[in-house]
Amino acid sequence: MKTPWFVTPSGEVLPIEPEDWLFEPGSWAEVGEALGTALPSDYKALIGDGRACIFDDELLITSPFDANPHANLVYHAARASWALAHLRAHNPDPEFGAVLAYPEQGGLLSWGVDGGGGTYHWDTLHPDPDQWTIYIEGRPLDPDVERHALSLTGYLDALRRGEVKGAALSHWPGPNPVIRRVDG
User: In the 8-state DSSP scheme, what is residue 92?
Assistant: First the structure.
């Protein structure tokens, strides 16, 4: 996949929409080729060959097989990478300047978003996608960045069990949260 942004001679960061963002259901090899990386096994098992999912009516988990661009993994990841690069270029906070955006080596690859403005990423620093951990940013809460040494499904399970405080809302997730497919 091409870098989802470019920098103009004047230093402005501009997005490049992905050319190919929708894939045939179950075509994980083609998705990996387009992204330039395999994806975590637990994510692929969760999505299967279907549409995006919603965890407890709040957290959208995108899918490369969803025709809605806002629920599509590749489209969402490209836009989120552009946003991270743009923020980095225009943010005076030196700590944020160290945040890398995929496809940069070890950059953040976005897989979801919540209703509170949070963007959920994999930290791709580890060469094995099954070792990627969760990084959440973009919410006006303290802390404004959360890191969890968990896989995507490990994070969802920790939310379900109440071992991790929900990033989106103060009373989220509710009791007995479920994952459902996004309606077509």
Answer: -
Crossing angle of helices 73-90 and 28-35, rounded to 10°: 20
Q: End-to-end CA distance of the chain, in Å?
A: 27
User: Which residues are bridge partners to 148 per DSSP?
Assistant: 134
- Token digits of residue 21: 């963002």
Where does the chain have alpha helices with state H? Answer: 28-35, 41-47, 73-90, 152-161
**d(Cα 136, Cα 48) in Å, to the nearest integer?**
24
Q: What pLDDT score was predicted for residue 25?
A: 95
122: tokens are: 């994999």
pTM: 0.87
Query: pLDDT tens digits, residue range 120-150?
Result: 999 999 999 999 999 998 776 656 678 899 9
